[in-house]
């Protein structure tokens, strides 16, 4: 296999990354790391080279060398070792800081505080944070990249922390922004309604996108097959210019290294899905750390729970992201990470030959509003769909077209407040063509630029009209089941369930149904006053199905964010039942049995694979994963395509053929047990 071709990245699907420290040269063992690459079955590696600190004998002025480097070249040794295994090689540079001598010689390289002083590094005093928009990145880092591809047999240069940290206030950034927009730099924190912020976001996008193009062109001028691959880090793919990405980004690398705080373990798979929602044809690598993360706490030289390491890596690649692990420090005081990484990478190597020829598919799409921060409404819907084993993808607000939406049968809008008239028109046509919609809370009540609408932009689609905007927080709210409807059929003998804390008052269209209505407010104290005074009144859930069109559901309270906060099972059931009803026909893939499973579906020509990631764990939602608990049996049912009379099945992780049962146009396979991952591979049988 020729490793040095323009499409080399297509066979770079398991990555080992080693980030060296200043004390490593002369102390760490490069042979140990080459053996790690072999044990993990890695076919690509990313190795520390330069930027903030050089681990090779650079000749560029003010390119700080490790003071332990001497006459050595640890970067070069690791490159040779990886190439001896037939691996692809990428050089890592980190341009986010410089030492004091560089500041003295080039003050224009450095970011500034609001009062104009050089911005000292927040974690390592005596070093200084660079400006991403000025000559440091555009000139110095470009020369470092050229030197690396000229002197070493590498395929790419990878930049970490290259996009700045907050609003850069260097003189170069201030002048460039003012000349382009007429605004002074915005004041943090982010305010979407501030004109300066409205101008800064696209300006920053253009500046960073042009920087990527500059670096990529620079390395290709020297080594034509090579690429410059910036780590997205805190960026999201929607924050870069689409045209430049098409030309200069052969794949993405997302730096979301592990579960943090109370983040759910399915967040790894979400990272892959979100990237694919914005750029469906671009592969995405998901960086996993072997150390624990917890918001602002960082223990980069430690080891996370082995079970959590495995789960994070596996959930990511089940949803289409290729695995990439990173280790900080070439010295290894604690090697408990090696086995779980090797195990997870080994699982990927086992299933990759089948999954690599397929694409991830789903009937359900969740709208990704492409905002700068997390969304608890989306988190709640995500959790509900995972619990219900409903496979889904994302569709990005930046690529919200009729063609893109047409890939799906149901669109979920968790709380898409800001929707342009054009986006509403896309949804309208989707429903007219038979697509279903489940919309939460304030969806479409604002325009794309934050302007307030007097009614829902999707009022005619959803069959609801706004009478009163959000009221709350409300205590002790309930919604009553009012009339028979599939969306309210799964609550046993309950006459009412928990409602919301932030409520909308809406009116339902004459042709809509109202399976749930709000119970009018009543006190939660004194206890003797805790009873309803009036019958249920205003619509809480509105459903509609017009002849020849798709089904729609609107929930007039904060169901997504409230479920994420409280995990009340009735809210999860309501969201899942709404999506199931909106599908209008049985789901293509149905998984029954015990446990919490994140389900992904991959489809190819005449074949389909169902990935079952077992997230079952007593601490799956509110703490770290300590152990993997096998769960089963599971029954996986898949609808056969037209013309198919049966299927043959194989369990890829178990390494065994599976018995199939065919009835009523569906094939069912029993999976006895899943520890972490099982992939059910089905191939269709046509004719007799």
From TrEMBL:
Q: Which residues form the signal peptide?
A: none
Q: Where is the Beta-galactosidase trimerisation domain?
A: 380-561
InterPro entries on file: Beta_galactosidase_Trimer, Class_I_gatase-like, Divisome_Glycosyl_Hydrolase, GH, GHL6
This chain belongs to which protein, by name? Family 10 glycosylhydrolase
Q: Which organism is it from?
A: Pseudonocardia zijingensis
